[in-house]
């Protein structure tokens, strides 16, 4: 993407120390947590190397967690320290959108991402999207809200490709079609909970003094918190680990700071939460109540929380529901999971080859594929990858139609990993 549209405000969320709550809701010693995190990242880095170098020899049913267990057994750690590292490593789930037990070690190298700042686009992607869509909006005939129900190759013998797209209401015929539909695998969801004020940043007027065991009662509260294996939640919440991003810090979010908590959930926890909200409309009391009830055990542990105080009661809640969204492929994005089928080498599913096949598309039929699932390996599952894949397909379509010389743009910077 060239430059940054002026109206997009981005903030770097890196470097804000996480504050964690362990089993019983007690904060973890900062130094201990930092050392644990360092070890987690060091093992993850080893895992990428191992997966890159030994992909062909790793069984498809071996998970990232299996490797962690193996690596931790080689170290002389106390039982508690080993457990802490295993609990911290669960945060990998928030990257890939599923439990880390399901993360394939064989295909772990496909998860390796571009290095860079961890930017938070506080005012959403709208300015970036508008800029990218400008020429299409100006020159193309755009039909929104028309769901394609089938794609048919209509090419006659020795004729140029013709592709028929059927929708519920009408049909369209094209000479080239780019399909962006995918079947996402991961289960990542976000839940926003807004409050009248950011009570966790400063004590509420008139409320009793903040609990002295709280890690901080000032606005220096970190922007990330992890609730590790909580045993203080109702049984049906199964001690799922959740991640919390606090969007209230002016130091991090400038004038876009808001008294909002952003929870990230994944795997079975995300499936459970989306099933809770499924029967209810966004505006209903039931929708509000199920989300509030689910997340209260977590947010009630924040500093200065006072039960029954009106400022500690949410003013609005909103959850994503990608798992029940057909147009999103019923999931969030591509990830690479373990497979229990350990067959012979010839039958083995090669996930990198699958991605290459998708990228190659079916140019002879006028059908191409783009989207995060066809991106360069370093950007699979990301917006950057989706953009690059579209750009790459666009250039290849120009090439296939003898128009490439007129295209002044360089091909994708990651052309080495494209077909
Ligand atoms: C919770 C969450 C957090 C994420 N965080 C990040 C992040 O921090 N950084 C990052 O880079 N990426 C992140 N991603 C991933 C990123 O959002 C996706 O990789 C990216 O949006 C994929 O773009 P795409 O164009 O491939 O697919 P999509 O954006 O899904 O576009 C596909 C389009 O095809 C349309 N479509 C599908 N089926 C049909 C049909 N039958 N007929 C007509 N139209 C159809 C859909 O409506 C949609 O508009 C996150 C995703 C989620 C869900």
TrEMBL record:
GO terms for MF: chromatin binding; flavin adenine dinucleotide binding; oxidoreductase activity
InterPro entries: Amino_oxidase, FAD/NAD-bd_sf, Flavin_monoamine_oxidase
GO annotation (BP), single: chromatin remodeling
All residue ranges annotated as the Amine oxidase domain in the record: 77-391
PANTHER family named in the record: CONTAINING AMINE OXIDASE, PUTATIVE (AFU_ORTHOLOGUE AFUA_3G12150)-RELATED, FLAVIN MONOAMINE OXIDASE
Name under which the protein is recorded: Amine oxidase domain-containing protein
């Amino acid at each position: 993407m060239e430059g940054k549209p002026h109206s997009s405000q981005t903030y770097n969320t890196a470097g804000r120390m996480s504050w964690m709550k362990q089993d019983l809701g007690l904060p973890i010693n900062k130094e201990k947590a930092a050392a644990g995190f360092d070890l987690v990242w060091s093992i993850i880095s080893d895992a990428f190397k191992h997966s890159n170098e030994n992909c062909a020899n790793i069984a498809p049913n071996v998970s990232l967690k299996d490797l962690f267990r193996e690596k931790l057994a080689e170290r002389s750690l106390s039982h508690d320290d080993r457990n802490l590292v295993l609990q911290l490593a669960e945060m990998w789930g928030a990257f890939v959108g599923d439990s880390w037990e399901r993360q394939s070690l064989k295909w772990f190298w496909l998860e390796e991402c571009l290095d860079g700042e961890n930017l938070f686009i506080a005012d959403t992607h709208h300015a970036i999207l508008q800029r990218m869509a400008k020429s299409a909006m100006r020159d193309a005939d755009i039909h929104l809200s028309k769901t394609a129900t089938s794609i048919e190759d209509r090419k006659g013998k020795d004729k140029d490709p013709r592709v028929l797209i059927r929708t519920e209401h009408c049909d369209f015929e094209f000479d080239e079609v780019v399909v962006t539909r995918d079947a996402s695998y991961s289960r990542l969801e976000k839940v926003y909970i807004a409050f009248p004020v950011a009570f966790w940043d400063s004590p509420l007027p008139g409320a009793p003094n903040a609990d002295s065991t709280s890690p901080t009662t000032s606005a220096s509260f970190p922007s990330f918190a992890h609730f590790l294996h909580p045993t203080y939640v109702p049984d049906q919440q199964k001690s799922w680990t959740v991640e919390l991003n606090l969007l209230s810090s002016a130091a991090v979010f400038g004038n876009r700071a808001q008294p909002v908590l952003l929870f990230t959930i994944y795997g079975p926890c995300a499936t459970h939460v989306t099933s809770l909200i499924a029967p209810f409309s966004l505006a209903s009391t039931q929708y509000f109540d199920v989300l509030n009830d689910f997340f209260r055990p977590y947010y009630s542990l924040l500093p200065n929380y006072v039960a029954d105080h009106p400022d500690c009661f949410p003013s609005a809640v909103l959850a994503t529901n990608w798992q029940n969204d057909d147009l999103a492929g019923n999931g969030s994005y591509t990830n690479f999971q373990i497979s229990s089928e350990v067959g012979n080498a010839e039958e083995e599913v090669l996930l990198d080859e699958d991605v290459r096949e998708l990228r190659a598309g079916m140019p002879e039929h006028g059908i191409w594929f783009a989207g995060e699932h066809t991106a360069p390996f370093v950007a699979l599952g990301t917006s950057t990858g989706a953009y690059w894949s579209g750009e790459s397909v666009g250039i290849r379509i120009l090439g296939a139609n003898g128009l490439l010389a007129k295209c002044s743009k360089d091909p994708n910077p990651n052309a080495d990993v494209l077909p």
